[in-house]
Amino acid sequence: MRCTLLFAVLFSFGSLGVLGLPARAADSGASVLRAGAAAVDISPTEFPVNMPGGFDANMADQVHDPLFARGLVLDDGTTTLGIVVVDNLGVAQEALDEAKAQASQRCGIPVDRMLVAATHTHSAPPSYVKEGPEPAVAYRKILLAGIADAFVQAHAALRPAAVGAAAHPLPEEVFNRRWFLKPGKITPNPFGRLDQVEMNPSTSADVLDRPAGPTDPDVTILSVQDAQSHKPLALLANYSLHYVGGVPAAMVSADYFGEFARLMRSRVRGDERFVAIMSNGASGDINNIPFLVNRPPREPFEQIRIVAQKAADAAWHARASIADHCPDARLGMLERQVTLQMRRPTAEQIEEARAVLAITDPSERDKLPRRATDYAYRVLNLADVEPTLTVTVQALRIGELAICAIPFEAFVEIGLDLKKRSPFPCTMVMGIANGCNGYLPTPQQHQLGGYETWFGTSRVQEDSSVILTENLLEMLAELRSSD
């Protein structure tokens, strides 16, 4: 509970100016924090559109619940920064660059002071289709305009505000999906080899041995309220849960992220201007399947509602624990471009992939490991890509809250490590932020194998998590040193 208690104490002391902590609101000429929030509907209007997230097409022909780009802009008189969380599997880097440039031209926020993260709902259209089916091309325009509008509208809504942050545990809805299995139960991977762990295996006790990693139980929040009326303006939450699912085929849905945002308004008794945002944490190896537990069957969307209700309750408890909201929280934001080596297949792996694709006899193909053909194509694709990939990482400071933004589906261990080593009392880690570049396992998890580590699923060098973590910790230290 380090985040909940210490941050509340620091903000309370900071506003009173006791124990030598700064109380800038009382200083002559001190800046007053301003905040604005907005939610822009980005639901598709033309159908059918594919919803990526699996190996096969999933064509949507209707919207069950709307998709949104939800924005929060903060300004302390020196620094203006903006955060937009968008209901999407993961927005391509080039699309984000275009949306940020549009927003910057319209409202003046520098592009390197903008964070855009995806929720990772698996029930939304893609961001990368520029040519091809008209509904998909049209949706890309809706998505980019919505992201830009969220920044612009939130910026236009700036008003004096105060902020506080805290965390509250919700351990019962997060499960590590990578498991060690009992002897003889591991099935061959697409390359015909045996990994040490398996992703989403059978939930049977006859198969499962032990999970291969931890979970992060906390729902971490940033609460924003009007400085004068004390009414809630916005709430940014973060939970390390991949997504929930249970959405029928052919339906667009924001998953539990959207239902959380809808419920949170009533939890805090916010008015029509209140915006709640749920972001995805370090959840690359975390899902909502209760292994070794016999959960009763659910109707479509039922489990989404259950998780959203519990998350909204946890966020309410976290907000209630904040002793005082700070009206003069200091802001800071740093961005770095980090170049990583791409994983390149060996000559032997390339030859094996070609041999798989050369098999045309259906009976012989049936003998191949599951997804062997899919991953043979991925191996050959990796053989032809550029040798390096440059990604964007960001570190933000909002008072005593730190936010780390990682453009991967980061494993939970990475988020837990950043929280533990952060110089700030409360730290939030956003995955799938400023790009979507596949899974980011730790070196230790790479050694165990499993879906998230395979060629084509994880594309960058095996120590990338270490490199990005060290960069983020350096950036957090720089933000902390500004005190």
The class by helix and strand makeup works out as: alpha+beta
Rounded radius of gyration (Å): 22 Å
Helix content: 25-40%
Strand content: 15-25%
Notes on the structure:
The chain is of the alpha+beta class. Among the domains are: 2-13 and 33-175 and 212-329 and 404-427, no CATH class; 347-384, no CATH class. It has helices spanning 2-16, 93-107, 134-156, 255-268, 302-320, 347-357, 362-365, 372-384, 412-421, 443-448, 464-480, and strands at 34-41, 49-50, 59-60, 62-63, 68-75, 80-86, 114-118, 159-169, 175-176, 178-181, 198-199, 208-211, 218-226, 232-239, 251-252, 275-280, 286-287, 331-341, 388-398, 401-405, 409-410, 426-430, 439-440. An 8-stranded mixed sheet has the order 7-6-5-1-8-13-14-16. A 4-stranded mixed sheet has the order 18-19-20-22. A 3-stranded antiparallel sheet has the order 11-10-12, with no helix packed on it. Strand 19 (388-398) and strand 20 (401-405) form a beta hairpin.
